Amino acid sequence: MAQWRKQTNGHADGIPPLDGRFICDHKYRMTQAQKQIETGAAHERVYRSLRNQVMFGELPPGQALTLRGIGQAFGVSMTPAREAIRRLVAEGALTMSSSGRISTPEIARDRIEELAAIRALLEPELATRALPRAHPALLERLRGINSNVDQMVAKRDAMGYIRANLEFHRTLYLRAQAPAMLAMVETVWLQLGPTMRQLYSNMQLSGRLGHHREVLAALHAGDEAALQVAVRRDVTQGCGC
Description:
Layout: H1 2-7, H2 20-55, E1 64-65, H3 67-74, H4 78-90, E2 95-96, E3 102-103, H5 109-130, H6 136-154, H7 158-174, H8 179-206, H9 212-221, H10 224-236
């Protein structure tokens, strides 16, 4: 009995007291873990929001950004703002100069043509892969989105048009069940984003905006060749390809 009491520091219930240092260390680790979770959530929120702004043409080419400004706009610290910027620079959505200046890219004509050529290669392939799964419900969904595209054109809402147009394509391509290829296409959309508003204006002046009706007709008919032609024309229109 004496030996038992010795092992338990004399506590009759057999449970030694908790070390205060253990409690403090545990609380510290819990606090740090919570901070990491909160920082990660803030970073993802900032990243997703900025990514959408770039992709949908809400930020013009050459738009300067600062970590402080981003932090204030989203109500976050510098750490999640910095991490979001790092990811977007890696994706080509933003540029960072040697001096640390952050901005949306200003894309030259040859670069626009290169990105449009990539779209012309990948997007008809995605549409072709989606064709066997183009059931009536999908066609109805695409018609509804295209109706919204037409409304944005009528209202001369450039950003609304870009958002609805990309929604049309993404909704179709999701049926291809080719996530790696779709991710590549979305990266191209992201890099083209800041120039899309100007491209939209040029197409609007020409009186030609998209080939979605031809895409829908080809899907309805199950015509793979016509679908590829329509998608290729749609994604390269106004890009000089």
